[in-house]
Amino acid sequence: MLTEGITIMKASFLSRRTVLISVAGAVGGTAAIGGVTGLFSPNAKPVANRGNVTLYKNPECQCCEGYADYLRLNGFEVKVIPTNDLTLMGEKYGIPDSLQPCHLSLIGGYVVGGHIPIEVINRLLSEKPQIAGITLPGMPTGTPGMPGEKPGPLTIYEIGQRPPKHYAVV
User: Fold this and answer.
1) Which residues contact 71 (CB under 8 A, 6 or more apart)?
2) In the chain, where does DSSP find H-type helix?
3) How far apart (Å, rounded) are the C-alpha atoms in residues 13 and 99?
4) Strand order across the 110-113 sheet
5) Residue 96 dihedral angles phi and psi, to the nearest 5°
6) Burial class (CB in 10 A: 0-12, 13-18, 19+), 157
7) Are 116 and 139 in contact (CB under 8 A)?
8) Neighbouring-strand partners of residue 134
9) Bridge partners for 80 per DSSP
10) Triad 55, 132, 110: Cα angle to 5°
């Protein structure tokens, strides 16, 4: 009778151990796969605060809200200000009419015009060039905050005191 009780306890103990090992292996395997493939939680939080952004936009434009969300997900605290004076503001920062963007963002002491990808903003903030900022003219599809597919390479221009020149092609 005593032997029978020990056998039952031993089977129960092995069963628990097997379950614990399986669970630990599954969690570890999931973490390894996630790290290798770049998977992330759909509930991932934005990166740490990288600074404040003031985004000026046309009051009727919704894509600018999408761009503001894009900046927030990339660690910026964004304040959106609707205005009907975007062209005048762009001229103030040296953006010619032919290069006017959808909206203007003030980031890290620079004016960033339009739907510019975060990689280009990161480059601007790390290189700290002696320019007023950068602009992506218009509202190209497939850029951050804009639906659709990107039509092809897009040129981002330097703006400031000299005639605009190419800053990046994305």
Assistant:
1) 53, 55, 78, 105, 107, 118
2) 2-37, 63-73, 86-92, 118-127
3) 72
4) 76-82, 51-57, 104-107, 110-113, 133-135, 155-159, 165-169
5) -65, 160
6) buried
7) no
8) 112, 158
9) 55
10) 40
Q: What is d(CA 166, CA 161) in angstroms, rounded to the nearest whole number? A: 14
Separation CA 111–CA 87 (nearest Å): 13
Question: Quick check: 95 and 105 in contact, CB under 8 A?
Answer: no
Six token digits for residue 127: 């290189």
Global confidence as pTM: 0.69
Q: What 3 state SS string does 82-111 have?
A: ECCCHHHHHHHCCCCHHHCECCEEEECCEE
Q: How far apart are CA 59 and CA 79, in angstroms?
A: 14
Read off the pLDDT band of 152 (50, 70, 90): very high
Task: Give, as one character, the DSSP assignment of residue 39.
Answer: -
Q: What is the pLDDT of residue 130?
A: 92
Choose among 69, 71, 109: nearest CA to 134.
109
Tell me the CB-side half-sphere exposure of residue 55, using CA atoms within 13 A: 27
Amino acid at 52: N
Question: What pairing do the DSSP bridges indicate for beta strands 133-135 and 155-159?
Answer: antiparallel
Average pLDDT, the chain: 78
Q: Rounded CA gap, 97 and 93, in Å?
A: 12
